[in-house]
Queue: 2 jobs
Job 1
Amino acid sequence: MAYETIIVEIEDHIALVTLNRPDALNALNDQLLSELCDALASAQSNDKARCIVLTGSEKAFAAGADINMMNSKSFVDVFAGDLFTEASDKIIAIRKPIIAAVSGYALGGGCELAMMCDFIICSETAKFGQPEINLGVSPGLGGTQRLTRFIGKSKAMDMNLTGRFMEADEAERCGLVSRVVPTKKLMDEAMAAAGKIAEKSMITVVAIKEMVNRSYETTLREGILFERRVFHSLFATEDQKEGMAAFMEKREAQFRDN
Ligand code: CAA
């Protein structure tokens, strides 16, 4: 598939996906979402990609779902067409880790897209928000659900009800992002984090992503049991033998994803 609204580069085992609708601040329209899903699925099945970095421009990661696209839609259009469900399901089905590298605006669907990634590294200029309330609608891609789990009820209510933007330092303080870095260093930092992940055993990486995500979907007791059983099952891999042998022999592990 030839892409017009995103750019995909694969290098050093990292798939870098850049949202590229600069005239609309990377607003998420049908074409962009379809291309993004296709690119992520391709990275998932490409052995050359071991980690994915999703980014936008310096001004905007994404300023939300495309309001032009939604403007004339009726309830029947969005309900019967199940707006955003297919794209959302496809994005969260990706098993390889996805790092969101956010600079500038991550609003509405843009903030929600960043939260669908596995963790967020942002620049000092990042601004997160769920301003849908100003449009007379609510978030529709997880802004009332993931955001509440990530930053707690009080801040999530504040963001969703007032539509205010949250700056990078507050986003780091409340756990929405894992790191804040100077704008010029954002991509280096995100690519370095992806590079670290790419060196690990892919089986272990995928297992840990599943484990952490399970913590949002089940009770603590069930989650700990899930973690313990997957931990046990990793002892069936060659990578566990290699990882522990390498530690004992004081050398770097050579993982083979088996
Ligand atoms: N959809 C469509 N176009 C958008 C857009 C969006 N979400 N956000 C920005 N754009 C367009 C603008 O219309 C403008 O296009 P033109 O030059 O053709 O007029 C261009 O991007 C640049 O935007 P601005 O001139 O507004 O730039 P600014 O620097 O003055 O303001 C901004 C930046 C504060 C991000 C402002 O653009 C803005 O408020 N955007 C809308 C944010 C928003 O409401 N997002 C939520 C969308 S709904 C949603 O996401 C639902 C969901 O949960 C799934």
Job 2
Amino acid sequence: MSRHDHDAAGFGTRAIHAGVAPEPVTGAIMTPIFQTSTYVQPAVGHPHGHYDYGRTANPTREALEANMAALESGAGAVAFASGLAAIEAIVKRLSAGDHVVTEENTYGGTTRMFSRVLARLGIGFSYVDASDVEAVRAAVRPETQLIHIETPTNPLMRISDVGALAALAHDAGALLSVDNTFASPYNQRPLELGADFVVHSSTKYVNGHSDVIGGIVAVGDLELAEELSFLRKSTGAVPGPMDCFLTLRGIKTLHVRMRQHNANGMAVARFLEAHPAVDRVLYPGLPSHPQHELACRQMDGFTGMVSVDVGTIERARALTEHCRWFALAESLGGVESLISVPALMTHASVPEERREAMGLTPGLVRLSVGIEDEADLIEDLARVLDR
Ligand code: P1T
């Protein structure tokens, strides 16, 4: 089923119905978990349709892909074993000698993959603050094939102008890829703004229950989807059928979860901004955020991701190690609240000078505000901060 069957339906209806249909043998309303590595062929060279081997094709995976394509306003989507595998596939379309301009404040693992793995294969990377369109323009070279951004960024919550960067990329003969993990398709749909690829660590808001590692890329152009499928088939980073099933199940409540994440995120950000123990709050929904107006234009909600500067590593430890409901852990986007110190955890692999230059200091604390009761979350933070 293509997304066009659902074009007229609202986001929540698409989240529940797009890409899924009753199973033809029994009428089962839920997409079966096709837990199989291969498919029996009736005659040599005549598989059942395109189902010949599990790495190449799996119906549970295809249902997830059709669903995500519909949510991201794409023509197609390709699911991967992790968010990093999904980003890697976008860059592996390129060849030695090609160049990528990338946001400097991506997830630490993305920067590590670019600088310590893909750069060794001869792809060049320039790291810029992509919230500054002119900085991106200045970094573009004749051999630039891709601009890769994250918006909001992890964990500084910088916002980049997707429409302006798509135009800049296309003028330069390059493509734009947007890591939409922090926003989720409920809050932001980069393909509608002109991006060529939108990529998710579906581990986060998309699945939403902290029980799957996964990644997915949605595209507006089916040729790009075919290229990515070819890369996945050829390099092997496929998600398992069970993980695709769980992610599809998680997506059925994406719109409901995101409304609550957005509301709780805003409430926690306002509370923290007013608290004397907090030096600075980074949340695109607050008027104090440097790109607040752009965020209002480009996003429908501001998520549950909030970063705060409490000044020192000692104070960051005191806050993150003593909460009751905010669990000290990497990752984000699940229904339960998490808290972390990016400089020592998710971004420890980024060289210290580069972290300091961006303002990613040891006193920066990142909260993934879950969907528990707002009053309990605020009371938890107040109790620790008031000490
Ligand atoms: O973990 P994985 O599914 O491979 O996704 C990597 C990734 C990609 N993009 C963004 C914006 C991310 O935040 C991540 C993973 N991030 C964390 C694990 C974290 O705690 O920030």
